[in-house]
Amino acid sequence: MAMSLIEFCERARAQIAAAERVLLASHIFPEADSVGSEAALARHLLQLGKQVQVCNPTPVQEIYRFLIDLSGLPHEAWIEGPDQLPAHDLVILLDVSHWDYMGALGKILARSPAPKLLFDHHHNEEVIGDAALIDPQASATGEVLYRYFLATGAEIDTPMAASLYASILFDTGGFRFRNTRDETVLIAAELIRRGASHIETAARLFENESFPRVELLTAALSRVKSEAQGRIAWTYLTGDMFQRTGTTAVDADGIIDHLMTVRGVDLAVLFRELPGGGVKVTFRSKGTPDVSRLAEQLGGGGRLTASGVTLQRPLKETISEVLGVARSGLSAGDGAGGKESDHG
Ligand SMILES: [Mn+2]
Prior knowledge:
The protein is α/β, with parallel strands linked by helices. The chain has 13 helices and twelve strands.
């Protein structure tokens, strides 16, 4: 259940105090917010003398591995699910509120008898775990965690500040997305004061592309199409394009943000053909239409401005079905008025 900051902090502190072995976990394809939050919390737990392990459903990508070094944990303590869980007496979930978004690891974790705490910034009707600190207004889970550290008097050392800064910088797209608030920037400033380097973090996250990823981006951008008088921009990546550039589906993360930079675009859609069959569909919007609704109509989910779904259909069929839903979502959203919300 979700609860107030004070209520949650009391409960979480007591559960952490009672635990010896703590297991941290996040969603599939963990990125800088999930890994940065895991790193900062792991370090905090080490300060408290806990044994800590981090278990993610899929590997941490190379560009986020600097955050593992900031955690103070040996690399062996960062494991990839889902085969078996290490012994633990407390589970802490970060940047995820749904077992579904944790793949097979979610199914195993759901069966763990250990108490579960959760830190997140996604809006969800139902929340997993025994106690949850969720702020859908927060730009990143790193921001939620920062408030927990402050409220509980935790020592935020330089590596923790650097990890949290990476979380926030990534989930705000470098303070560019609509989830950037006064509070976000104030927390970021405080983290820099505590030793986080803006230049180094920005370089790690935004000046760290590989040539294969640039080739993939080129393939995607050379196929961009527009719909609905330029209000929808979409593109696709076939299995063949991934193969030719030596990349995988996860390397296409971030490509959709380029579509959102086009003037007049309210909705962007990216289609990725997956190696095991099926197509991963990703949506972005500026608040109208609510893309969590579009994804839900297709059996997926997400947030107001960022969502997705995987469909088990051929690419061509998927594109025409999804664009149909997107066009009707766009006209249904007309006149509804734009809401400001989070982006991840
Ligand atoms: Mn996040």
